[in-house]
Amino acid sequence: MRLITVEEHFTTQEIIDENNKFSEQNSKPQDPKLAEFYKSMVFVGKALTDCDEMRLAFMNSRKIDMQVLSYTSPVSDKVPANEAVRICKRANDILAQKIQVHHDRFAAFATLPMADPQAAADELERCVCEYNFCGALLAGQFQGHFYDEKIFLPIFERAAKLDVPISFHPAPINPVIQNYYYTSPEYSSFIAGQFASAGFGWHIDVGIHELRLILSGIFDKLPNLKLIAGHWGEDIPAYLDRIDYIITPESAGLKRKVSDYYKEHFYITPSGILSPMQFEYIVKLMGAEHVIWAVDYPYIRNGNFYDFLVAADFLTFEQKELIAHKNAERILHIKGEN
Q: Which whole-number Å values give the CA distances from 219 to 117, 212, 226, 234, 255, in the listed order?
C-alpha cells in the first residue's frame, strides 16, 4: 500500500540566512521562555535541510513512498513586503529544484509572502502552474492578523480557483497571550515555552484560526475551498457539537452549521500523533475521505507510521487506502501509481 505524507518540513541555509538578516535588524530580544525551547530543537537542523540521503533513508525505513515538502516559516512578519516576495520566490524555486531530483518521492506546498496578499495569490498560481505544487502552507498569523480578514481573501480565492488546498501549521503565538495563559511562577521558563508552543499553545491558536475562517463566511463565498488541519484538527473536532449548540447559523449569519462546513471543507492529518483513540474518533466524525496521513518530519521521527495505519482494525482495507494515499492523490492532484 502506497503511503503519502503531507506535513514534512524542509529549508535551506540560504533561506534561513535571508530571513535572519531582516529579523535581526527589526526584532526585539527573543522571549527567554521560547529561546530555551528552540535551543532544544537544534537537533533537527541537518534533517531539515537534507533532501537526499538522510530524508530518503528515513522514508524507506518507515515505508513512506512520498513526502509533500513545505517550509514551516521561511519569512518572518518582520521582513518588508518587497523582500518577502523575493525571498518566497527564491525559496519556492529552490524547493522545485529539489523535488525535481526525486520527483517520484517528493511533492511540495508553496510558501507565500503574506505581507502582500495579491503577490501571495500570484505566487501560489505560479508554483501550481509552473512547478505542479500541491497548494500552499501557511504558518500561524501575520503581524497579529488572522487570515479571516478581507485583505487575505485573494489568496483563498486563488486556491479555490486552482482547486488546491491551503494547509495550516502552528507558529509562535502573540507574546501577550503567551505570558497571560502559559507563564507561571510555579514552573520553569523552559516548561512555559513548551506549554505555549508545541506542547499546547500553538495548536489552540491554529484551532481558533480554523473557526474564525468558518465564522467569516468564507466557505459560503468559496464553496470549493479546501483546508488541511494537522494534529488531529487542532482540538476543534471534539468541540463541534458544543459549537453548533451555541453558535447557530442564524446567530452567525451562515447558511449551515459550523460542523457542516468543517466536515466538508477540512482535511485532517495526525501530524505524527499516533493515538489510536484520536484516530478512530476523527475517522468516525469526518469520514475516511477527509483524513490524510502526515508525520511532521523531522520534528517527529519516532514511530512506525505505516504499521500504525495498517494495524487500525476499525478500518476496512479500502478506507486505509484512502487515508494512506488516495485522498492525497485526489486533493493534491498527485499522480497515482501506474
A: 19, 11, 9, 19, 10
